[in-house]
């Protein structure tokens, strides 16, 4: 990897006969064939990439424009530092980093299963047990993060993605752009997404890992009713609700939800940071660890509310394209001729590209 943002790296160059010679290491182009644009952001573009060594392997490469990033280099370095520290089955993995004069390239695991809410809406049946299983995976990943001294600071449903299209696919935490190492100083910056932000962040008090637990509480609430616990068109009113921790379990939406689920949410969305559960405590709660979660089908009411309260996801536009990626992988696996694979892949990629709206926003990391 080249040094980020032009910093000196003594391992890369050696002086010989008065001339500087670079040690040769494989470049991005040596290792990957760049394919479709999967999405674009303010400073970056995410592209599908195929391994040259193993054409069955596909990745997401986040390409960051250094010029556009000027003045914000620290946040990228922070994101890379955080991702390098984290290796967990429910966290989208950073695999490699490359750099040239104008861009930084983050090679990430390709996550193709779509967003959390879309999957719930598409399901035929959905129960508290399903929601509890999802939250267990999230809590285990966040507990691991916290043990590594990392606070995510922006946990929200859009950052929870299914690994693949399989019915029993695991859930993945993505987007570590706002993450922070606890040892990098006191955290007091107001950041995150309004409806999911903890009261202590809004109160501009120093805060820590407990902010992630609050966000998990908000997500759990939505998973059981399909609408957010705090909502107001006016941000000042929304923040006032959050600061007081004012939320209800409204009838009829919560009538069929177990008392254990409600207690779990109260322990996570507790304004008093000292009394709020940690991830470890939450994982021990009977709703997660025991048999307290109901198996009554709540799909009808939850999916109806999700459709009403959460705008159509950008992921849905990509569903056909993602199906194509799976088709490509199957073609590659069933073919022994690598030349044949490339031709087939090229044609399916082009088909997929037609489906993807060029302007669609997609966060894969």
UniProtKB/TrEMBL annotation:
GO MF terms held by the record: ATP binding; calcium/calmodulin-dependent protein kinase activity; calmodulin binding
Gene3D superfamilies in the cross-refs: Phosphorylase Kinase, domain 1 (3.30.200.20), Transferase(Phosphotransferase) domain 1 (1.10.510.10)
One Pfam short name: Pkinase
InterPro entries reported for this sequence: Kinase-like_dom_sf (IPR011009), Prot_kinase_dom (IPR000719), Protein_kinase_ATP_BS (IPR017441), Ser/Thr_kinase_AS (IPR008271)
Catalytic activity: L-seryl-[protein] + ATP = O-phospho-L-seryl-[protein] + ADP + H(+); L-threonyl-[protein] + ATP = O-phospho-L-threonyl-[protein] + ADP + H(+)
Keywords of the record: Allosteric enzyme, ATP-binding, Calmodulin-binding, Kinase, Nucleotide-binding, Serine/threonine-protein kinase, Transferase
Binding site for ATP: 62
Enzyme type, top EC level: transferase
CDD domains in UniProt: STKc_CaMKI
Record-listed E.C. numbers: 2.7.11.17
Matching PROSITE patterns: PROTEIN_KINASE_ATP (PS00107), PROTEIN_KINASE_DOM (PS50011), PROTEIN_KINASE_ST (PS00108)
Keyword set includes Endoplasmic reticulum: no
UniProt region (Disordered), positions on chain: 1-33
Domain Protein kinase: 32-288
Family to which the UniProt record says this protein belongs: Belongs to the protein kinase superfamily. CAMK Ser/Thr protein kinase family. CaMK subfamily.
Entry-linked PANTHER family: SERINE/THREONINE-PROTEIN KINASE (PTHR24347)
Protein's UniProt name: Calcium/calmodulin-dependent protein kinase type 1
Species of provenance: Orchesella cincta (Springtail)
């Amino acid at each position: 990897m080249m040094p980020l943002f032009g910093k000196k790296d003594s391992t890369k160059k050696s002086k010989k006969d008065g001339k500087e010679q670079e040690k040769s290491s494989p470049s991005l182009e040596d290792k990957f064939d760049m394919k479709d644009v999967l999405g674009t952001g303010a400073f970056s573009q995410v592209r599908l990439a195929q391994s040259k060594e193993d054409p069955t392997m596909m990745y997401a490469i986040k390409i960051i424009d250094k010029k556009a990033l000027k003045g914000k280099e620290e946040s990228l370095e922070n994101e890379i530092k955080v991702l390098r520290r984290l290796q967990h089955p429910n966290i989208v993995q950073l695999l490699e980093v490359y750099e040239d004069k104008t861009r930084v390239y983050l090679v990430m695991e390709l996550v193709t299963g779509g967003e959390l809410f879309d999957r719930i809406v598409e399901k035929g049946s959905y129960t508290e047990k399903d929601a509890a299983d999802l939250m267990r995976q999230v809590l285990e990943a966040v507990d691991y993060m916290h043990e590594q001294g990392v606070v995510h600071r922006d946990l929200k449903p859009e950052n929870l993605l299914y690994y693949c299209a399989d019915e029993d696919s695991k859930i993945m935490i993505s987007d570590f752009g706002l993450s922070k190492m606890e040892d990098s100083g006191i955290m007091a910056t107001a950041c995150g997404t309004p409806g999911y932000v903890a009261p202590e962040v809004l109160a501009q008090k120093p805060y820590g890992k407990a902010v992630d637990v609050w966000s998990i509480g908000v997500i759990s609430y939505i998973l059981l009713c399909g609408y957010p616990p705090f909502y107001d068109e006016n941000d000042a009113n929304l923040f006032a609700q959050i600061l007081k921790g004012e939320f209800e379990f409204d009838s009829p939406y919560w009538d069929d939800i177990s008392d254990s689920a409600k207690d779990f949410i109260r322990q996570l969305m507790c304004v008093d940071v000292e009394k709020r559960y940690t991830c470890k405590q939450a994982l021990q709660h009977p709703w997660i660890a025991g048999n307290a979660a109901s198996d009554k089908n709540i799909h009808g009411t939850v999916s109806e509310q999700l459709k009403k309260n959460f705008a159509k996801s950008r992921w849905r536009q990509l569903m056909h394209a993602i199906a194509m990626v799976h088709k490509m992988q199957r073609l590659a696996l069933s073919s022994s001729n690598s030349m044949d694979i490339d031709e087939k892949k090229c044609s399916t990629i082009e088909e997929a590209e037609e489906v993807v709206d060029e302007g669609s926003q997609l966060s894969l990391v």
